[in-house]
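Dear colleague,

Following up on yesterday's call, I've attached the two folding results inline so they're easy to grep. Please treat them as preliminary; we haven't cross-checked anything against experimental data yet. The first protein's sequence and structure tokens come first.
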Amino acid sequence: SLRNLLDMDTFSKSDPVVVLFVQVSGSSEWKEFGRTEVIDNTLNPDFVRKFVLDYYFEEKQNLRFDVALFGAQDFLGQAFVALGEVIGSQRGRLERPLTGVPGKRCGTILLLAEELSNCRDIVTMQLCANKLDKKDFFGKSDPFLVFYRSNEDGTFTICHKTEVVKNTLNPVWQPFTIPVRALCNGDYDRTVKIDVYDWDRDGSHDFIGEFATSYRELSRAQSQFTVYEVLNPRKKCKKKKYVNSGTVTLLSFSVESEFTFVDYIRGGTQLNFTVAIDFTASNGLPSQPTSLHYASPYQLSAYALALKAVGEIIQDYDSDKLFPAYGFGAKVPPDGKISHQFPLNNNVENPSCAGIEGVLESYLQSLRTVQLYGPTNFAPVINQVAGIAAQVTDGSQYHVLLIITDGVISDMLQTKEAIVTASSLPMSIIIVGVGPAEFEAMEELDGDEVRLSSRGRYAERDIVQFVPFRDYVDDSGNQVLSMARLAKDVLAEIPEQLLSYMKTRDIKPHRADPE
């Protein structure tokens, strides 16, 4: 919607149209994505045409809205916004002033984002069977069910197998869950075919019979038992008196919605971003060009790049834009004590910096005042953020800690213990390794291959994502591209990690109130 547009028409009000441009990732190029319809003779249009965009939390998706008069070349203003800002704003609604016409107030643009429901329901059902055909020579049958969904072209794709119930003609199978998408691709009337087999050890399972149904028919079992006849077409042809090969009864059927990351963000969950930067001596003297902390007038240091890449995306989901920022491994003035969690802004009471620019400023200021030292201890700052995360566990706050380091970790045992404890809290940890060091220890913390454990306790969730910065540096020196690549990889797991926390705590998103 647009409000209070500039009036350019002499004889009537304006006939506005909005053109959406999308910025090509890692470049300054804009591509036209689409246009709204034209609404005649109004300065406050509400457009009907929607733009359907693919949304990626881990990417900075810059959008530009140009407002123009239809038929004329008159430009009425424009607005720049990141898709994440719209989704991260309250109830997915964002209002921005239009700019671009010198000396004139151009009015405002109202943007509303909603997620297209992609059939996120999950079904739980339980079945039993009665008087199935006996297939085994010495005992009864060992029955199991195979579910198939039908495809557009009439073929069938297997989508579920039950367990085998041994030696019975009247099996009761365990309840199982399956996404509606897998069962019928979201089409409630599409055929679902179910085959009944007798299990044989050698894999040549005997076919007992089959029946067909649909999601819509299955869902009626929420109010009554549904009984299906199991038929064997070959037997039916051969025997005149054939009735069936038994029956299958649907005992229960329930549906639950699977919530998405966007559901929680729209419901008001805030992402809180904290930064911890490595100030150990192995980084090299910041004034020397060989130092990992060295920033030339033309180029940011690897630390600053990593911080900007991740921070600029996360800040869209944090309403106050205040970010606590710490350093570790330095001797800190006035008394030169070694600290592993000193505030970069030198304010112990309030370590928060205003925006990512504020964090960068405080980081550069600290480089001038502290003495790089050691060792490289992660546990203090992880425990610090975990302590804050533990204060609010109702799903309204989720914490992301970014640790940027040049290498070998000195307190591995304490760090593992800290991460295992933090894994039950609403937080995720991103570790970016800068410089040429070997980072084997970090891979262990990442826990993708083997779940992290400490003193016999296993991490409840995988909450750590580690990447070496050197893997993302663009050969041509394009820093924007390097940052986009890095952010994409380190942030990709955050939505899943947030969802896994909410799921294990059975926290449902707050419903956004309709307008």
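Below is the second protein, in the same order (sequence, then structure):
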Amino acid sequence: SYRAVSRRLACGDVEGRLEAIFGRVRAIQAKSGRFDMLLCVGNFFGSTSEAEWAEYRTGAKKAPIPTYVLGANSPDTLSYFPDVSGCELAENITYLGRRGVYSGCSGLQIAYLSGTEAQQQPEPAHCFSAKDVTELKTSLLAAPNFRGVDILLTSPWPRDVGTFANSAGEIDTKKCGSKLVADLAASLKPRYHFAALEKAYYERLPYRNHMVLQETPQHVTRFIALADVGNASKKKYLYAFSIVPMSSMDPAELVKQPQDVTENPYRKLRKEAPKSKAPLSAEEEPACQFFFDLNKHQGKKRPSDGKERGDSQPKQAKKPPQPTGPCWFCLASPEVEKHLVVSIGTHCYLALAKGGLSPDHVLILPIGHYQSVVDLSSEVLEEVTKYKAALKEFFRSKGKRYVLFERNYRSQHLQLQVIPVPLDLCTSEDIKEAFITQAQEQQIELLEIPEHSDLAQVAQPGIPYFYVELDTGEKLFHRIRGRFPLQFGRCVLASEALLAQPQRADWRQCAAQRPEEAAQARAFRQDFEPFDFSLRD
């Protein structure tokens, strides 16, 4: 039926404490009613299991509910699992097998992988290899309309599961766990993923399985690591949950996003995966044929038929609006600090930032008065693009990559802040991760938008926004709906995660005397000259 609700229990390392776990299950059932099954991850058997286990193996005692366990994680317990493909170990206790998918009569799909990640070849019997993970992924992803599995059971944690998330306490998720399990979780998109082995309880905030604005919404994943049964610290080792099989759910209900949903911790893995072009379904068309209307909170698509913008012709050259008062950035204005200007084109100019994060922190500015990138006429936008290309080439020649950001909020003249970061300091993924992590900490929804999309596709003129662009073309975007920290972009770049100069987050603390600024501008102008198209055009 549609509401085929299953009530399940999951537990961490039993380590042979069968009386303890089954006693706890009986107590819970007496209080809360019957559960359908118990799923055990981590070490089911321990070094002193034999006496307790004999009573269950011989049938003298029986597990109170159907219990499904993963295989050995060390050579010591291999003898308890006579058949690698899975078998009944005792009445009501089943070994699932080395790897595979268990489908119950309710339609619930449970994917499982036994053992720990192999560190050598050939892999020992208690370990899994990249081949095991690939075969498990292939068997599921080959199914037509595969959306994910209901539950994934592994003993090790996935590497990096704590990225973009609440703290995992003493566990360092960047070092702990298995990269192969992370790859498996990224591909199988389980609604629940249980793991153990670390003697810790960690319920990660749910994470999304789609790229916002780039893919249709999908269900979220909840990762839960469980402690060892009967541990002295009273850490949680048993988790009760109810689940309706994905196959029985209303699609709209399945993809509902909880308020505390985070970015996917395995974004890097998803990006590195070979991009196979799946045939588009009837509901989906190429993203380039749509604009995204961010007036609605979800990325609702509106056709790019030109009606929204009056016509589908390129923007005609138009005079920029005049400033309502003195402007510090209109080049013709007496307020402009002209000693900071380092290059002047036909429609734009470059100037060193006052109180820059570094001596080569520059601004790309339109000569005329435009408030934001989405207000620019086509010829001004074209020259902005030329300056970006010239700066990329210039900074790369110095062993750096640039990060560009714009804050279209409480500012009246467009300023594109361009800050170079040493190539050997961090990757473009590190930069994106730093921005997304610090945005989440401040409840700012910073979304990745398609690399080749025009900013005008996600922001309409007059709408406040903040956006970041890397010199690879990758972009992050936030539609500002209320207050926004004015120094957010600088703070992220100055943070320990990137330039490690938190004392320079506020430009006012970094302002130099005019002669020093003029000397820095002369030095930059001289250095940039071979790359400056404005001197040749």
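For the second protein, one point worth flagging: The domain at 338-531 is CATH 3.30.428.10 (HIT family, subunit A).

Best wishes,
A.L.
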